Amino acid sequence: MNEQDLSVINQDKWFKNRTQIFKDKLVKNAKLITLNAGDALFLRGDENTGLYCVINGVLRVSGVNSQGKEAVLSFVTSAMWFGEVALFDGGKRTHDVYAQTAVRLLHVPERALSLLLQEHPAYWHDFGLLLTNKVRNLFDSLEDHALLTAKQKVSKRLCMLYQSSHQSCLPLTQQQLADMTYLTRQTINQILQSLQADSIINLKYQSIEIVDIDKLQSQC
User: N or C: at which end does the chain have fewer Cβ atoms within 10 angstroms?
Assistant: First the structure.
């Protein structure tokens, strides 16, 4: 892993605030892997394979019902760590994770994590903070679902994706945005058309371009 890759993962608040010793030990046995758009990283029910961090690209976290309908839950973008749930309970993967675009990932294997925690049990606290960050985000999402208007939900979700991906053009379909906000495809289209009419976004094929982030934030 080169200095540029290290610079990317240090953008994550959780990783950045860890001690240098912890960071060095965590990435010591890590390896870089690449995926093409559409490739599966892992699927629901798969065994725990360790912890991941996105170097560049976008991953899609989703679930599929018995009829084969996919519901997009979230996107994982640059510098975001994930996969820690199975680290704590030793269980299987809870959702499907696919490459939305071409992706480069840092992968810390499960065996390396187990050995690290056997040698340094105090590091459970560090991983616990990573997990609680996700729980806090989940509570925020539930609150937004209960209290925000449809337009506020869409605007806030787009702002979050913009801020986490550090890019203005989001590789996101209207149906995926509908799944993430628990709104209908028709409602999403109406809101996006309104935002486009106000020169806040620009609708493209299977993507949404953020034209004015300040105006978009004012809609939240």
Answer: N
